[in-house]
């Protein structure tokens, strides 16, 4: 399903980031690299043999709107507990993801209501396309969701391999915000945590508007939106969320592209042997095959890779019994087909599908996957490696000693789980796709995706 990234940008145009449009998929000659006579030199020295400059957003001072948004983002007074702001869950020091190791955060008036999903990073959403279901083809904007979803129900599932540029026909859900893609713009999205009783629990729109009226930044608010902004609470809150979205779009801190890997792509940094081996295993269809979904190639126009194809997949991660919601045996988070998203409920072929997240800064996280089931990257790698080859290592046992495979999905939806794409698809008992060293190397490589790398002797 490798195709060009879609052009239906929600966020980037406003940011002036991607005026160039998105690049066609540029299959990188990995196999060629390995045949390259310089490959041995490459492994020894760790330089990229095909460096090319990257097109990064240029840092610019924040507009008055974005500055206001930054204040709102950090304002705890908007929550009923007066202790939660956006930044409390999306901490700037940890890539705007959770600072701790909890699988989900606590919110509500006394911070006792546990959320049901892991807090994602807010970085690199500036090129996130809007939600759609359609052929993996940027020219073809599929808009009629239920009609296209209906058609896709019986379509053969296309597999994903790192270096196959074509991809079989198939209708692919992609894009949007949240693990289930249910919000399309940062502005609409921000209202959800603000109102959610499990999160900031801000109360009614009228209450939030009243809090904004009392906020220390009220003057800036009036200056930007005019004195009548408080006349209509709906409008007040919408403008506030617009400012929060501007902040996330304008502040380079959300998308700096300053990882070691970015500099390596440009020929300015070199990888250690373990990082380089990890990069190769990450790309190798017979090993990690990670890059099939977590795209790692720069676009032809120099746009840096985002380590996601923006698509949804069902990986069948195990149920997380540390989440209070899981204590109810009837509760299932089905991602695209509910419970939070409601428009695709009948599209049961998508039950269990979650958005492929970026892997940039992933090594800064301490909780992984939509339900926060894992606390370390080694556990994530074990999941990919052993889910099919040794499921007894991944899932709890049923009464009869057999593993309860895909136990976070009702049995009727378990056939939705991806068994085609490597590193999955190995027969039980067969050798897994990666060995222990491949996994260690891939973890070392993932460490090169943290932003803020300082070039030796450079800036
Ligand atoms: C109590 C913790 C908490 C607070 C407070 C919070 N969020 Fe979140 N945020 C989450 C969780 C959990 C998710 C994922 C929810 C889901 O997928 O259904 C999320 C998702 C998001 C996303 C989508 C990211 C993606 O990758 O799709 C954005 C954007 C976002 N939050 C911005 C904000 C803003 C802006 C605020 C303040 C108005 C805020 N959040 C407050 C926990 C929080
Ligand atoms: C078929 C597509 C696909 C392949 C192949 C794939 N991933 Fe993923 N990855 C996903 C999806 C989808 C999720 C989110 C699943 C969920 O939360 O239920 C994910 C989540 C992750 C996460 C958790 C990120 C977070 O913020 O919680 C990590 C880490 C990760 N993948 C690494 C890898 C590595 C390493 C490989 C190769 C060994 C790999 N992935 C192969 C689709 C894929």
Please tally the β strands and state the result.
6
Biggest pleated sheet:
2 strands, antiparallel
- Global geometry: globular
- The main sheet orders its strands as 1-2
Helix content: 25-40%
Secondary-structure element string: HHHHHEEEHEHHHHHHEEHH
- Please give the alpha-carbon distance between the first and last residues: 38 Å
Provide the list of bound ligands, each named once.
Answer: heme C
Q: What is the helix tally?
A: 14
Mean pLDDT: 86
The share of residues in extended strands comes to under 5%
Class from helix and strand fractions? mainly alpha
Rounded to the nearest angstrom, the radius of gyration is 22 Å
Walk me through the structure.
Helices cover 27% and strands 3% of the residues. The protein has 14 helices and six strands. It has helices at 12-15, 30-35, 39-45, 64-73, 86-89, 145-152, 186-195, 205-214, 218-225, 233-250, 260-265, 273-283, 377-389, 436-446, and strands spanning 106-107, 113-114, 132-134, 172-174, 312-313, 354-355. Strand 1 and strand 2 (113-114) form a beta hairpin. It is globular. The two termini are 38 Å apart. One heme C binds next to helix 5 and helix 7.
